[in-house]
């Protein structure tokens, strides 16, 4: 799964990096980025297809945690932050968004916890990013629901996950779906089921490193969150 991300790129730089997408409303997020320990329920920049267009995309803001449009006032329970690629087209929570409202979720990296014993009580957090250190886009889906109190439309999203590549399999049984730039517009397009895009990203283009356990609390939001700590003999990094 993917339950925490980091966005060390500023909003203006993110817009320049994904220059095919119009800036849209995302400039209002500038005050809260960079974000070193981004958690569900926070608002992030995402990229969606512009209405009635197959070739234009734009940045918008959205809350992490998918709430279907039919849910009343947010659904009343913690919304899902991930959608498994195996069931995204059939699960009633996700299938309409997957068919018609897919998005890109730009980040610089994400975090995962490696269970060090069978009980899962001993765990070690890792940061995951591209070897190039460039921001990248994860595959997502989005929805809107109406706030009962204000009538405001609130946009939400979830990140698609798939089986891990060889690198990620050394610490976890899932990974975020990371898209190649050449596939961005196809993911955003009108095709109802681009399932072949939901595949493990090549290990040789990625890196990961152990970090301090303070990443576990979203209250900790400083650049040193992603600093590497010493590697122990149990760490598995060879691809």
UniProtKB/TrEMBL annotation:
It comes from the Bacteria. Gene3D superfamilies: SOS response associated peptidase-like. Keywords: Covalent protein-DNA linkage, DNA damage, DNA-binding, Hydrolase, Lyase, Protease. Its EC number is 3.4.-.-. Coiled coil: none annotated. Residues 212-239 are annotated as: Disordered. It is an enzyme of class 3 (hydrolase). GO terms for molecular function: hydrolase activity. Belongs to the SOS response-associated peptidase family. This is Abasic site processing protein.
